[in-house]
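Tutorial, part two.
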Amino acid sequence: MSKRRRNKIPEGLFTAEIESLSHEGRGVAHIDGKTVFIENALPGEQVEFKYISKRAKFDQGVAENIVTANTQRIEPECEYFGYCGGCSLQHMKPESQLAHKQSVLLEQFTHLGKVQPESILPPLQGPGFAYRHKARLAVKHVIKKEKVLVGFREKRSPYVADITECKVLHPDVGLKFTALQQLIEGLSNFNQIPQMEAAVSDNGSALVIRHLAEFTEDDIDKLNTFEQEHQLKLFLQPGGYDSVHRLNKNDDEELFYKLEDHDITIYFEPVDFTQINVEINKKMINLAIELLEPDKEDTILDLFCGVGNFTLPLARRAKSVTGVEGDKGLVQRAKNNAIKNGIDNVKFFAADLAELNNSNEFMQQTYDKILLDPARTGAKEIIEALDTKNVKRIVYVSCNPATLARDAGILVNEKGFKLKQAGVMDMFPHTTHVESIAVFDKK
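Running the prediction step on this input gives:
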């Protein structure tokens, strides 16, 4: 009984003074000595908020009224902000979002890695809206609403948000939620389609439709009509990723994006990992090359190489580049990209970079420089396993400041490197995701 009373959510509005911003972009306040994380609140603000949960060590709330506003507060462009879970920082000016992300990065370096960069790189910025070229969209037939919903999840909820558009998605997809809802509602297996994956390329936009029941001939006709009317490339996925196939079997044109500064075209499958923000990706590649300083005498190792996003531009400037990736499909795509771009000073290997031994061929070679671009789990295992005695410089691209900081601690405190530079890149505007880049030189 006492536990239920203690966790009961108070009703009504309460006043709070916001002291700081958490890593997740929520305002931090203290009420009666207890920490309260408050959504839609910025540092220095006085807000009226309602509680949404009570826990033993902290409470959570959402600001309903802003009594005194931070000068960095702006009006969100999206009408669904605060309801849809796709964005969390649209109420902050873009420069304030970047400053927050930089502070998160530096704090993680200090607390987790016990290191600090010698200098801070200027942030990379790109478009704030219509920037997202990759997305996984949830699909759900909601009986109570008598409709199919397509979009992201609601904030703090597993339910699909009832929205008609997304301003951060490329318009080819972000402006077609209503059309997609109507398409699915007209299919025989409308309640057996759990998700779609969108992939926008330079030669068109693709949608991969995951379906748990087969389509009828009438369904196929409707899908073909929709594809033609909306100029989309539809793919069907009845099983795992290896089951993905084109709806229109006569269209065998591959998706691609061009890296004009390097005279390279990268071809990819719609479910392959590619960077979601095309403009930031191009700037990031140029920055990584500038920081790594490759020359015609350098032998370079590109870890977590994917389809060759960094490998091939580096190969234009280095003696040779070795790319390593855990996904065999991506490795094959990287090899094909090298051939199609006429690049012959690269090698690609498929290897699980979390479980390594010296029998891996690429581990038996020596390298002058290394580029890493791991997933959120970081690169701890490969960093510890690699012989880096001949490595002069490492450039580390990260989508998780916590694992970057942890790995930086290993490089600096155990492997004999110094952290020269680090900075953030706005790959995910209006979200709390922090993309960053760091440079390590041998001491």
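The chain has three domains: 2-73, 98-127+277-442, 134-255. In part three we will examine how such features are distributed along the chain.
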